User: What shape does this take?
Amino acid sequence: MLAKLTTKNQITLPRKVVQEFVGIEYFDADVQDGRIVLAPVRMQPVDATLGGVREKMKKLGITPADVTEAVRWARSKEP
Assistant: This one.
């Protein structure tokens, strides 16, 4: 199957290819042995991820003040 690269560096994938990846909106692109390789990536909604982080922080007893102090400490270090 043929796919054309546009002047805006976009490639339209053939319908037969896309039909194999129902529900997938993102692909990881890589170059291997002179070929473009696309791998499907399932993205999680930010809210779900953020909720999980907040839940984990609560279980660990990490407070917003702890996070603020950690950010302050990290920003004060020289690279």
In short: Helices lie at 15-18, 46-60, 64-76. The longest strand covers residues 26-32.
